[in-house]
Amino acid sequence: MPVYTFINTKTDKEHTDYMTISEMEEYLSKNKHIRQKIMPINIVGGVSGITHKNDQGWKETLSKIAEANPHTPLGREHGKKDVKSIKTKQAVSKMKKKYGGVI
Length: 103
Prior knowledge:
Blueprint: E1 3-8, E2 14-18, H1 21-30, E3 34-37, H2 56-68, H3 73-78, H4 83-99
Antiparallel strand pairs: 1-2, 1-3
């Protein structure tokens, strides 16, 4: 059953009720001082990894962005994982430690 929020125009108090559409229309026609307050709806499409998976096209897009921005968190998570890039990242990290992060 739908949930409706109403506002009393005399007292400015709000209340919420569960009722059918026909019950809501009848309620509003009997109570002229009550107005329906339009509220946004809540929609949950799912939780990533539990109810749905990212498709291969999205993974490819993420990897392209990661390759263009290798030193960002996205780049570290989705970037290339070959031996050369791993060794390069380790060398840069070592130099940052040695010289205080000014590289």
